[in-house]
From TrEMBL:
The lineage of its organism: Bacteria, Pseudomonadati, Pseudomonadota, Gammaproteobacteria, Enterobacterales. InterPro entries: HTH_LacI, Lambda_DNA-bd_dom_sf, Peripla_BP/Lac1_sug-bd_dom, Peripla_BP_I. GO terms for molecular function: DNA-binding transcription factor activity; transcription cis-regulatory region binding. This is LacI family regulatory protein. Keywords: DNA-binding, Transcription, Transcription regulation. It comes from Yersinia thracica. Residues 9-64 form the HTH lacI-type domain. CDD domains: HTH_LacI, PBP1_LacI_sugar_binding-like.
Length: 342
């Protein structure tokens, strides 16, 4: 018997153990292309077990024209929304016989490009992709012919496959909810102004104020990063001036940072400042106070994204999904409720 610890076991080792040719071993492992007599097949299977041989799955996959892997590129996996999406995608990929390889850009655009190249060199069957600054390296992927689906808003003129929610409409509904509570002075902590999703969420906030006949005060627009420190720093800046009645933060992490800054000034939500946020996760529900937040249907979105890769045709396809507003205590609502929007 060959010692499996001494070196890598090969098909030649299996063939010697079974008393057959290497070709016969290959026919058994690949279930063809030629038939193998039952007794011979059993000898090969026994030899595989005895020697501890493990087929080279990478080589087999390449021979089949598929690696049975998808790549996932995300801006920063520490973001609860991003990690929740990644978890849903991993689960759905596994259910379809695929392995999901994660590339975490760490909010670094150069690292994002290197990760894309790395996954493309590994010949993944497809890419799922959210760019650090929503200005993705689309041409880099298209040049290889690799199927890919964007997981966020991109310029429609680029003619690609993407899944998304209408973030402008979602931001409108979140801001309108604050207006329905009777608030008139509503500020916003948003992302960097050059990002497409920031522009959508900022425009949704403006739309709601203008429809209600309220003034859009540019001094109450606080751009920052989509992080806890970003929300904290923006809130500290906001608290230096007149305090608004309500605030819309354009992601959950910003809301967490804002609440920390408020507590340092002996302020709380919703008593001193009503608060709603965007892209909440389960963390919003268990925060104190629980956050009123826009929720995206991640499980359905993940299922659709994997199906788009699996059935790739190259035709540009945009799939848009409904969102919901999960009501918590931070806006002044007294009980948990979820409102769906078509």
């Amino acid at each position: 018997m060959v010692n499996p610890q001494s070196r890598r076991i090969t098909r030649s080792d299996v063939a010697r153990e079974a008393g057959t040719s290497v070709a016969v071993v290959s026919y058994v492992i690949n279930n063809g292309p030629r038939p193998v007599a039952p007794a011979t097949k059993q000898r090969v299977l026994d030899a595989i077990q005895k020697t501890g041989y493990r087929p080279n799955e990478i080589a087999r996959s390449l021979a089949r024209g598929t690696t049975q892997t998808y790549g996932l590129i995300v801006p920063n996996i520490s973001n609860p929304f991003i990690s929740s999406m990644a978890h849903a995608l991993q689960r759905e990929a596994f259910a379809n016989g695929q392995v999901l390889l994660l590339g975490d850009a760490g909010d670094d655009r150069q690292r994002e490009r290197e990760l894309i190249n790395n996954l493309l060199h590994r010949q993944v069957d497809g890419l799922l992709y959210t760019s650090v600054d929503r200005h993705p390296y689309i041409e880099l992927i298209q040049a290889t012919g690799t199927p890919f689906v964007m997981l966020d808003r991109v310029d429609a003129a680029q003619q690609i496959c993407a899944i998304r929610v209408d973030e402008r409409a979602a931001a409108f509904q979140a801001t309108q909810h604050l207006i329905e509570h009777g608030h008139r002075d509503i500020a916003i902590i948003c992302g960097p102004l050059d990002m497409l999703n920031t522009q959508d969420r900022l425009n949704g906030w403006r739309d709601a104020l203008q429809q209600a006949g309220l003034k859009v005060r540019n001094e109450w627009i606080f751009p920052t990063t989509y992080t806890r420190p970003g929300g904290y720093q923006a809130a500290q800046q906001m608290l230096k001036g007149p305090l608004p009645q309500a605030l819309f933060t354009t992601n959950e992490l910003q809301a967490f940072g804002c609440l920390r800054a408020m507590s340092e000034h002996n302020l709380s939500a919703p008593k001193d400042l009503a608060l709603v946020c965007f892209n909440g996760t389960i963390e919003s529900e268990y925060n104190v106070p629980s956050l009123t937040t826009v929720r995206q249907p991640l499980d359905i979105m993940a299922k659709t994204a994997i199906e788009m890769l699996k059935n790739w045709s190259g035709e540009p396809t945009i799939r848009e999904f409904d969102f919901s507003l999960q009501l918590g205590e931070s806006c002044g609502c007294s009980r948990f409720k979820e409102i769906d929007f078509p």
